[in-house]
Amino acid sequence: MQGVNKRLSPLKDTTIRVKTFMHILNFFCLLFLYPCIALANYANYKVTGEGNDPKNYFYRPNNFKGNKLPLIVLLHGCNQTASDFIKITQIHKFANSSNFHFISPQQSLLYNPKRCWNWFFKANQEPEGGLELEDIYTQIRTYVQNNNVDEDRIYIAGISAGAIMATNLIFTRPELFAGAILHSGMPYASNTFSRFTFFLDYHRNYQKIVKSMKNGPKKSHHKLMEESIKYLQPEHQIKLKRIMIVHGQDDPYVTNLHSKLLFDQFHFFLEHAVAANKLKTFTRKNKKIEHQKFPYEYQSYISNVLDIRLELYDIDNLGHEWSGGSQGMPYSNPFSHKVMAHFLKSTHVQQGNRFCENKLASVKDFIR
User: Fold this and answer.
1) Beta bridge partners of 181
2) Which one of 147, 182, 273, 338 is CB 3.0 to 4.6 Å from 163, fit for a cystine?
3) Whole-number pLDDT of residue 94
4) Which among 33, 171, 30, 158 has a CA at the least distance from the CA of 106?
């Protein structure tokens, strides 16, 4: 009846109250308590031997003898733990036989109730913003300082929010990483909010992000390109050799347009990071690779002279899931192309009898 106020049912009323309380708690933690929590976690972080704690996982090869070895950083996505992502990528199966370290930070439920990295906060898009980005960087530096890591071979891999956070790390610390797998991600700084303004209108701003994920960013192509070189300095010794961008064409959460824009960002970045007289050594290619179940569009920007490879794999019939991941895990497709194995083979991570250090994998190696 018109003019009659309808009361919510007790269940709906309780649900709204709980959600409101969680948003307020989340806001309070991020705005006021984050530095304390991050420092407490850092103080307890283990940096020697194999082990894990409730927030971070790391692995040192069993036959580690003090030699400098590569390091891979893994960043999980939303509704995942570090352990989940390790199992999905199966990196633990490669690490000991191929002699490399890996660390996998885990997002706290206090910072995000879905364990998403808050990649859209302005402070997580700056070199010394003080939030999760700085915490992850500190964990990397701590591990490197306490283990014989080859600092010319530090790599990073992530999916979804983890891929975006990895992208934030690369563009804010461009001198740190030698390569990356960025799976189902988005371009750097496609959405930017301060913590305060984000929580002032949480629901509306959250919906803006969701809409952007599905439809593409509002920022212009030119603005996104400029964002990629914001922290690039002439004195930086860029180590990037291998950037592998992967996306599913059937991703229901993040449009594959984002990965194409991310490819353009790295292309733009390399054009400014590499000496002008060496840019002529690069070639750009686009082609369609046929496959019975998972054909894909392939883009590349490669310099064999400089040993730099920027590649995009836009895979048909793949959703929001890690390509070639383990079976029985959410956000994993075990039947699609083997991303992690291909990346390890085409970088300088795997060495010895199994793979030649300077041998670059071909596109055919990517196909099952």
Assistant:
1) 157, 244
2) 182
3) 87
4) 158
Q: Where are the alpha helices (DSSP H) in the chain?
A: 10-28, 34-43, 82-89, 91-98, 132-146, 161-172, 195-200, 202-215, 221-228, 257-273, 339-346
Q: What is the pLDDT of residue 129?
A: 84
Which residue is associated with the tokens 């700084």? 189
The whole-angstrom separation of Cα 55 and Cα 114 is: 14
Structure tokens at 314: 């836009």
Phi, psi dihedral angles at 179 (to 5 degrees) = -175, 170
- DSSP assigned state of 334: T
Question: Model-level pTM greater than 0.70?
Answer: yes
What pLDDT shows up at residue 53? 41
Q: Which residue has the tokens 């070895």?
A: 69
pLDDT of residue 351: 47
The closest of 292, 188, 201 to 245, measured between CA atoms, is 188
Asked whether the beta carbons of 253 and 160 are under 8 A apart, the reply is yes
Distance of CA 320 to the CA centre of its chain: 14
Per-residue pLDDT tens over the stretch 2-19:
333 334 344 444 444 545
Give residue 95's Cα distance to chain centre. Answer: 19
The pairing of beta strand 51-52 with beta strand 56-59: antiparallel
| Model pLDDT for residues 276-320, shown as the tens digit of each residue | 889 999 999 999 999 999 999 999 999 999 999 999 999 999 999
Read off the amino acid at residue 68.
Answer: K
Residue (of 154, 172, 79) closest to 117 by Cα position: 79
What CA dihedral angle connects 34, 26, 230 and 286, to 10 degrees?
Answer: 130
Question: What separation in angstroms does the CA of 4 have from each of 13, 14, 193?
Answer: 18, 22, 40
Interatomic CA distance for residues 70 and 5, integer angstroms:
64
What are φ and ψ of residue 257, in 5° steps? -55, -35
* Cβ neighbours, 10 Å, residue 220: 9
Longest dimension (CA), the chain: 80
More confident residue, 60 or 160: 160
- According to the 3-state scheme, what is the secondary structure of 262-282? HHHHHHHHHHHHCCHHHHHHC
Note the Cα 282 to chain centre separation in Å.
25
| 103 membership: H or E segment, kind and range | strand 101-105
- Non-local (6+) Cβ contacts of 338 within 8 A are 323, 324, 366, 368
